[in-house]
TrEMBL record, chain A:
It comes from the Eukaryota. GO terms for cellular component: RNA polymerase I complex; RNA polymerase II, core complex; RNA polymerase III complex; RNA polymerase V complex. This is DNA-directed RNA polymerases II, IV and V subunit 8B-like. One of its GO terms (biological process) is DNA-templated transcription. Pfam families: RNA_pol_Rpb8 (PF03870). Belongs to the eukaryotic RPB8 RNA polymerase subunit family. It is found in: Nucleus. SUPFAM superfamilies: Nucleic acid-binding proteins. Keywords: Nucleus. One of its GO terms (molecular function) is DNA-directed RNA polymerase activity.
From TrEMBL, chain B:
It catalyses: RNA(n) + a ribonucleoside 5'-triphosphate = RNA(n+1) + diphosphate. GO terms for biological process: DNA-templated transcription. Pfam families: RNA_pol_Rpb1_1, RNA_pol_Rpb1_2, RNA_pol_Rpb1_3, RNA_pol_Rpb1_4, RNA_pol_Rpb1_5. It is found in: Nucleus. It comes from Gossypium trilobum. Its main location: nucleus. It comes from the Eukaryota. Belongs to the RNA polymerase beta' chain family. GO terms for molecular function: DNA binding; DNA-directed RNA polymerase activity; metal ion binding. This is DNA-directed RNA polymerase subunit. SMART domains: RPOLA_N. DNA-dependent RNA polymerase catalyzes the transcription of DNA into RNA using the four ribonucleoside triphosphates as substrates.
């Protein structure tokens, strides 16, 4: 199962809408991870999955939702057992950009994922993101702790 | 030209009776409607050829005049000839040697007609100069010739011999001394009557004629026989039986016959002196008006009440033969009606009402494929759709399909027949809206026959036609042959004209509601469930398309799709659609926030923009961004449609537009979008914010006014106190509107309809919203605040001299809150200016476009890449310096490609799977190899290769920088290297593809031979002219102009309204140096530097003593002392002072003693005292003022060099003197005055001045026009070695044919001159070919099939 998940960590919401509220149903959350010291911006549909400052959640990124690791077909079949069962909020999207952030010392990498226009920015040590590829289809899975 | 005998020979009948019909309304023989000149009406027959009204071409008659008269058309030529010949022996007045020289020049085979006309003019000039206002003695016969002039107030020629000093006058005087008349002065100037002139002309030698560039005998310029034109060209229209309406020409002829017979009567009756004949003058006037009815020199009492038009009036003017009938003709198979929108049509379609389709027809040839369809058409007949009008048989006969035999005809229909059937779906029609300003104003659509009565088309095509649906009408034409159809479809099809050749932007693009709905759909918080999403998906293809439903964005807790995913479907509905779109666009609401800095480079947030204003589409997936005008609209080179068009093809772009139109029209119909009063009601916060802004800025204005009243105002450069105050207040007030606009944009709810529309760019701007909700703002009239209509005030509601915002036209209310009476008045003032301006502008720019077209119409690209005119003269060796087609330029400012975008596309579409990344240093090397491989014959220009190299160099450096970071961090370098390659690496495959695409695209963008680039260029410059609103606008105190400025440049005006010299300083970093140089240029008058100018009167002498203010002079570093002042006083001609009158007393004092006698000395002294302060002591007289300006810095030096650089703007003429001023860098100093640049720096400088000035003027109005068009215009204006304006005078000198010139302006003059000079026309230009109705030598007509 671990090979399904490309990245997993526990995040704490620091801020909601750092640039002011712009949209009714979507909130941009600013969160920081506990283990890998990753920084994240994520647009969440807070109408159906509300989030607040201080919320602690675990976030995972995976290739596929199939537990056997077969690649995603693009079809959603609710009946089958899947990775999503363990999580409360699941999005599907595409990794569209990898860039570097040299504000500090050393090579920090940023990965950008778009979930149908809901964006995610994940910044951290390059070694944590080395197995992400451009144009990769990703599932984002969130469960509040 | 015909001589009198030739006319008589050609004529069938002598016309001598000024009558039309007899009592039985039969034409009278020998009358003006003699049946031998052709049948007078449809019922009659020709008495000469026995042809009917339709067959007989008409025959001439002739009308002999009793006495000869001048032909008015040739009057100026006659005058010129008379100036040059001896009035006694008819020989030329030049001596033999000179005449021979001129003849040699005239006969040289290489002499062009233009040059010949010039030589002729110089001959005339020489001859008149020899007369020199006095007399010239004929070298052959010794006769003394006076000067020849056109007789005033009559049609005739004067020969003025009053200054001839031979003794004939004395003889005459003595001869008549005994009579009474001797006391009165004798008028020695005589009218040269036509008889005399005719005899002179008859005696002229052929050689002299040649010298005067006459191709024919000059006696033909004088009329003795009038050719009476056939009745066919002057039809007589019978009105209710006995009466008839005669043509103007016939009536003119009648008058001539009457005048002629009365003159004959006079001759017989009285034996009065020859020139006293009153009747002769009358005849002359009548014959003159027969040719040209508004000829000058007709006595007022002879002018008729109703002007009858002459021959010239038939030809000239917009409705005349040349422009009305020969250059443009009436056509059949056309339709016109009101237009309306229909988003369900494809962009290439036009809906045609059935009513129209039943009238318009297309001749379709019967073949095995269409025989059944055509049989049905024939059966249906002309009144039932789909029917047919006519059947034509191969033997040439034709049957109309009215009657019962239709069925039989249908059954007998055979292959090879032609059926004129009704218009049907898919037929090709041309669609046009006036004014046709550019070639996209007439495009080819496919017909869709629909019910109801309007022509309908997709709103996306509104832009090229500039159409809206407020009652506009449009025209439609149906091409009638297969050739015409194919040519129309290939060249004029909507799909092939998606982008404008003006600058390569797309013109056909989504507008208005399409933008609004796309904007709303792609909002970040629009989510759809499975049902809704599928429904909207089915909107875009009428549920007929195959669609792959994408994986929902939200899988849990509920399955939801976002609006952006709809666009993924729209761009690539199905996996088999191989369109991989890649683009980034910054929309209007992009925040431009800086996310981070790398080194000194600022990286913007880009995709993470909080407003979602950054559009990123990757492999046809909308990653982020709310779509608006920048992406979907027209006028952007990086928009979605332009990229689809460039990367794929016109079809891909068109289908995408169709899908979007359908989807958004249906979506917005369900969603609803309207505007109401609550949309413009300001909230409390908005009102408060507005109040704060208003009161704050009002206070600032009051402060300024107070400072002005106290005289403490800090002056702006080149302005006085009042101007400075105006500028400051205007600036503050304009800011109010912008600020309130911003507040509105911030405070309004996102669902506010006007806000949505302004954000997505479909309609309106922040200012419009602000005007409705918050504050209308400052009203301007002529670029200033409202002027004073009353004494010292704008309206009597205010105090005199009041300069407060409200008193000068500031409207603080909004349209919602309502305007006060005074505000309303000011608002109407501004509104009226706008209306007047548009009305005036259209006529002006229309004429400008016409002139441009006439000057440039025949320029085309040839197969050797040169740009030539119709006669083959080279105007440009390579079009636009690189031979590229401006319509397909992708990059900014006319650069062929946009490398950044292309590399992004290559990286996205060519994934680096199983490929190896290139090390940084291998990139340039690979480039070299690939360039050689893909461009072996060197089509690409050096400039292009260089920029490609520069771009890849940048990529290399970026990669190096990241690799540097990797090597800095000491851990697990392999993984890190891998990541860094993912960040900005490039594989060998990607680089190869990139270079191949670059070179391949470049080669496909080379302009095609035959392109009528002149007409395109003229349209590209003329069309934006019509869009320029408001004539003037003020920019930091310096008035800059729009349309009038373009007109000035194009006309090559000698005197322009704002000549500005841009002068570079030798030391441009120091303000003080700049001030010093400014002092040297700006004119300083004595009054400014003099401490006093006093009248000193002592007992011995009276003088004016000037003492200079040395302190001030030193302050301004002007180097003026008494000697300099003396010099300049002496150089002032008005003062009339000589060396001895001005005395230098010491360095700063001098004395002027006026040269007058004692009695008038007092007046002299006072006038001197008044005049002396105005003497220019230093500086350039022609310069108005000098402004020191900071140079605009380029972005590169922005960060490090904070040092300010200065340059001077010199208002006024005198480039040469300014260049010579110490401290000015003459090599970089330029003027905006084309003619001055020509005079001082030469023709190439003038060319670049024209190009730069047009570009600058257009750019100041935010209009981008490809530089190649302006280059072409500049070259056309300068290619003859002098600057030729695009006016009638300039175009004349551009080596154009007579027919073209005649169809332009001054029709008559050109035609008469051509006949005098015996010009021939090769019919190679555009206008000539149109007039003659033959294909022209450009475009598809550049080629001919060679017959063996």
């Amino acid at each position: 199962m671990s090979n399904l998940i490309l990245f997993e960590d526990i995040f704490v919401v620091d801020k909601l809408d750092p640039d002011g509220k712009k949209f009714d149903k979507v909130t941009r959350i600013e969160a920081r991870s506990q283990n890998c010291d990753m920084f994240m911006h994520l647009d969440v549909n807070t109408e159906i999955y509300p989030m607040h400052v201080g919320d602690k959640f675990t976030m995972a990124l995976a290739h596929t939702l199939n537990l056997d690791g077969t690649p995603d077909t693009g079809y959603f079949n609710p009946g089958r057992k899947s990775l999503a069962d363990k999580y409360e909020y699941v999005m599907h999207g595409k990794l569209y950009k990898i860039s570097d952030d040299s504000s500090g010392k050393g090579l920090k990498a940023e990965i950008y994922v778009s979930y149908g226009g809901l964006l995610m920015l994940l910044r951290g040590e390059a070694s944590h993101v080395s197995h992400f590829e451009l144009d990769q289809r990703l599932f984002l899975l969130i469960r509040k702790l | 030209m015909f001589s009198d005998s030739e006319i008589a020979k050609a004529a069938e009948v002598q016309v001598y009776k000024g009558v039309y019909y007899d009592l039985q309304s039969r034409p009278i023989e020998g009358g003006l409607l003699d049946p031998r000149m052709g049948p007078p009406n449809k019922s009659g027959k020709c008495a000469t050829c026995d042809g009917s009204f339709g067959d007989c071409p008409g025959h001439y008659g002739y009308l002999p005049l009793v006495l000869p008269v001048y032909n008015v058309g040739y009057l100026s030529t006659i005058l010129d000839i008379l100036k040059c010949i001896c009035k006694s022996c008819s020989r030329i007045l030049l001596d033999d040697k000179l005449a021979k020289d001129y003849l040699k020049k005239m006969r040289a085979p290489k002499t062009e007609p233009l040059k010949k006309a010039e030589i002729m003019k110089s001959v005339v000039k020489k001859c008149t100069a020899m007369a020199g206002g006095k007399a010239v003695k004929c070298s052959r016969c010794g006769y003394l010739n006076g000067t020849v002039k056109k007789a005033p107030k009559m049609i005739g020629v004067f020969h003025d011999r009053s200054k001839v000093n031979d003794n004939s006058l004395e003889e005459l005087k003595s001869a008549i001394s005994h009579t009474k008349e001797s006391k009165s002065s004798i008028n020695t100037s005589s009218v040269l009557n036509p008889v005399k002139v005719l005899s002179l002309f008859k005696r002229m030698t052929d050689v002299d004629c040649e010298l005067l560039y006459l191709s024919d005998r000059p006696e033909k310029f004088i009329i003795t026989n009038i050719a009476v034109p056939p009745t066919a060209i002057r039809p007589s229209v019978p009105v209710d039986g006995s009466q008839s309406n005669e043509n103007d020409i016939t009536e003119r002829l009648k008058r001539i016959i009457q005048a002629n017979s009365s003159l004959r009567q006079q001759l017989v009756d009285s034996n009065a002196a020859f020139h006293c004949l009153n009747g002769w003058d009358l005849l002359q006037v009548d014959v003159a008006q027969y040719i040209n009815s508004d000829v000058r020199g007709v006595p007022t009492e002879m002018q008729p009440a109703r002007p009858l038009s002459g021959f010239l009036q038939r030809l000239k003017g917009k409705q005349g033969r040349f422009r009305g009938n020969l250059s443009g003709k009436r056509v059949e198979f056309t339709g016109r009606t009101v237009i309306s929108p229909d988003p369900n049509l494809k962009i290439t379609e036009v809906a045609i009402p059935i009513h129209m389709a039943r009238i318009l027809s297309y001749p379709e040839r019967v073949s095995s494929h269409n025989i059944e369809k055509l049989r049905q058409c024939v059966r249906n007949g002309p009144s039932k759709y789909p029917g047919a009008v006519k059947v034509r048989y191969p033997d040439g006969s034709a049957r109309l399909l009215i009657g019962d035999y239709r069925k039989r005809l249908a059954d007998e229909l055979k292959f090879g027949c032609i059926v004129d059937r009704h218009l049907e779906d898919g037929d090709i029609v041309l669609f046009n809206r006036q004014p046709s300003l550019h070639r996209m104003s007439i495009m080819c659509h496919r017909a869709r026959i629909m019910p109801w009565r309007t022509l309908r088309f997709n709103e996306s095509v509104c832009n090229p036609y500039n159409a809206d649906f407020d009652g506009d009408e449009m025209n439609m034409h149906v091409p009638q042959t297969e050739e015409a159809r194919t040519e129309a479809l290939m060249l004029m099809g909507v799909q092939n004209n998606l982008c404008t050749p003006k600058n390569g932007e797309v013109l056909v693009a989504s507008t208005q509601d399409f933008l609004t709905s796309s904007f709303l759909i792609t909002r970040r918080d629009t989510f759809y469930d499975r049902a809704t999403f599928s429904l909207i998906c089915s909107y875009m293809g009428d549920a007929m398309d195959l669609i792959d439903l994408p994986t929902p964005t939200l899988l849990k807790p509920v399955e939801l799709w976002t609006g952006k995913q709809l666009f993924n479907v729209l761009l690539r509905p199905h996996a088999s659609v191989r369109v991989y779109l890649n683009l980034t666009v910054k929309e209007r609401n992009y925040s431009r926030k800086i996310a981070k800095r790398i080194g000194d480079k600022e990286i913007e947030v880009e995709t993470m923009c909080p407003n979602d204003g950054f559009v990123y589409i990757r492999n046809s997936e909308l990653i982020c961004g709310q779509l608006g005008k920048a992406t979907l609209g027209n006028g952007n080179k990086d928009g979605l449609y332009s990229i689809l068009l460039r990367d794929y093809n016109a079809h891909a772009a068109a289908t995408c537009m169709n899908r979007l139109a359908k989807m958004s029209a249906r979506w917005i119909g369900n969603h609803g979008f309207s505007i109401g009063i609550d949309d413009v009601q300001p909230g409390k916060r908005l009102n408060d914010a507005k109040g704060v802004t208003l009161s704050g800025n009002y206070k600032k204005c009051d402060e300024q006014i107070q400072m002005f009243n106290e005289g403490k105002l800090q002056l702006k450069p080149g302005c006085d106190a009042a101007q400075t105050l105006e500028a400051n207040i205007t600036e503050v007030l304009n800011k109010i509107r912008d600020e309130t606009g911003k507040v509105c944009m911030r405070e309004l709810h996102w669902r506010n309809s006007p806000l949505i529309m302004s954000q997505c760019g479909s309609k309106g701007s922040a200012i419009n919203i602000s005007q409705m909700i918050a504050c209308v703002g400052q009203q301007s009239v002529g670029g200033r605040r409202a002027p004073n209509g009353f004494i010292d005030r704008s309206l009597p509601h205010f105090h005199r001299g009041s300069k407060t915002p409200a008193a000068k036209g500031f409207v603080a209310n909004s349209f919602y809150s309502g305007l006060t009476a005074t505000e309303f008045f000011f608002h109407t003032m501004g509104g009226r200016e706008g209306l007047v301006d548009t009305a005036v502008k259209t006529a002006e720019t229309g004429y400008m476009s016409r002139r441009l077209i006439k000057a440039l119409e025949d320029l085309s690209i040839h197969y050797d890449n040169t740009c030539r005119n119709a006669s083959g003269c080279i105007v440009q060796f390579i079009y636009g310096d690189d031979g590229m087609d401006p319509a397909s330029m992708e990059g900014k400012s006319g650069f062929p490609l946009n490398f950044d975008r292309l590399l992004m596309k290559v990286k996205a579409t060519c994934p680096p799977v199983d490929q190896k990344y290139l090390p940084a240093d291998a990139i340039p090397q690979m480039l070299e190899e690939q360039v050689v491989k893909h461009d072996p014959d060197g089509v690409c220009s050096e400039a292009f290769k260089k920029s490609l190299k520069g771009f890849l160099e940048g990529q290399k450096n970026e990669l190096k920088r990241v690799m540097q970071l990797v090597s800095n961090s000491a851990q697990k370098s392999e993984i890190l290297e891998d990541v860094s390659h993912k960040i900005c690496g490039i594989t060998d495959r990607q680089l190869e593809v990139f270079i191949r695409i670059c070179i391949g695209r470049y080669r496909s963008k080379v302009i095609e031979a035959g392109t009528a680039i002149g007409a395109i260029g003229a349209q590209s410059i003329g069309e934006p002219g019509t869009q320029m609103t408001l004539k003037t606008f003020h920019f930091a105190g310096v008035a800059s102009m729009r349309v009038p400025r373009i007109k000035e440049i194009i006309n090559a005006a000698k005197k322009i309204s704002t000549p500005i010299i841009t002068a570079e300083l030798e030391f441009d970093s120091n303000v003080n140096v700049a001030r010093m140089v400014k002092g040297r240029i700006e004119k300083t008058v004595l009054g400014q530097v003099a401490k006093s100018i006093k009248i000193v009167m002592t007992s011995r002498l009276a003088s004016v003593v000037i003492s200079l203010d040395m302190e001030r002079i030193l302050d301004a570093q002007l180097h003026i002392d008494a000697n300099v002042v003396k010099e300049s006083i002496l150089l002032t001609p008005k003062l009339k002072l000589k060396e001895q009158h001005v005395k230098v007393l010491d360095v700063k004092k001098l004395e002027v003693v006026p040269p007058a006698d004692r009695s008038r000395i007092h007046f002299e002294l006072h006038s001197l005292k008044n005049l002396l302060p105005l003497v220019v002591v230093k500086g350039i007289k022609t310069v108005e003022r000098v402004v020191i300006a900071e140079k605009k810095k380029d972005n590169k030096s922005l960060n490090k060099e904070a040092k300010k650089l200065y340059q001077l703007f010199v208002e006024g003429m005198g480039l040469q003197t300014v260049m010579g001023v110490e401290g000015i860098d003459g090599r970089k100093t330029m003027s905006n005055h084309v003619m001055e640049m020509l005079q001082i720096l030469g023709i190439e400088a003038a060319r670049s001045c024209i190009i730069n000035e047009i570009a600058a003027t257009m750019a100041s109005h935010g209009m981008s026009i490809d530089i190649r068009h302006m280059m072409l215009l500049g070259d056309v204006m300068t290619f003859r070695g002098e600057v030729l304006g695009i006016t009638r005078f300039g175009i004349q000198k551009m080596d154009k044919s007579i027919l073209m010139l005649a169809s332009f302006e001054k029709t008559g003059d050109h035609l008469f001159n051509a006949s005098v000079n015996g010009r021939d026309d090769k019919i190679e230009g555009v206008t000539e070919c149109i007039i003659m109705g033959i294909p022209m030598q450009l475009g598809t007509g550049i080629l001919k099939v060679m017959q063996r």
